[in-house]
Amino acid sequence: MTSGFDLDHTSFAVHDALGWARRLRRELGAVPVCGEVLPEFRYLLLYVGTADEGGRLELLEPVADGFLTRFLKAHGEGPHHLTFTVPDLAKAVGEVRSLGMTVVGESYGNPAWREAFVMPDAVHRTVIQLAQTDMIYPDPRELVASTARDPSTLPSVEGATQPLWWTSLWDTSAEASARQGPTHLASSDLALSRRLFTEILGAQVLERDGSLDLSWPSGSICVHPADAPDAPDAPDAPDAPDAPDAPDIPGITGISIYGGPPQPITIGSARLAGGS
Known about the structure:
276 residues, alpha+beta, 2,3-Dihydroxybiphenyl 1,2-Dioxygenase, domain 1, 8-stranded mixed sheet, 7-stranded mixed sheet, 5 helices, 36% strand, globular
């Protein structure tokens, strides 16, 4: 596929991002990548891995009433969305719409982070964020070796402030060095999932045991078959999906973690647990 496609991160809605980050740093060795504050929420992007292998996950915390407080009130803490970077956002949006999927929240004015949101449907029951940026993250070797972060070089959401709000996380010692593996996503239509993730979002794919193993330079997703429930109600905002209620219905069900604690870490309906 064309270069420039990547799995940016898997995102979780939580009540206390820094509290969760401290736990993930202690138990998994997570290192902060970047974070910012918006009018309704703040976020913290973490890297879980070594200099050679790992992935990114995001923690979203509300700072005022809005879509995230509504999500947490309705569903509690748990998986919130998947984010992919693409080389041409407008082209990707058009191709996603050609699959019959609904895209909202298009924003093209900020070169550091252009974005759009694919609404949750009966196939994946999670928001899929599409983004285009002219900025890059530090190399994993740099992330795990240094605490220095230069916000001027990193992806940045339009209107965001306080790019170093999270730096007290460095005071928490990393007591482990785990590696983030694939995110697990249940889908009610594997054929549509394959078209979306490979033809439009640039994944390399391997079919195995009735599932799709999808890979990008910075991460991977294992798409499993699921039952097909009725489509969820429309959420309150572009990035507020209906959370999955059980592993056999569509949605994000967890992330494989290699070298982590013997007991899984559970964030709502998702498990961060040892992979095979």
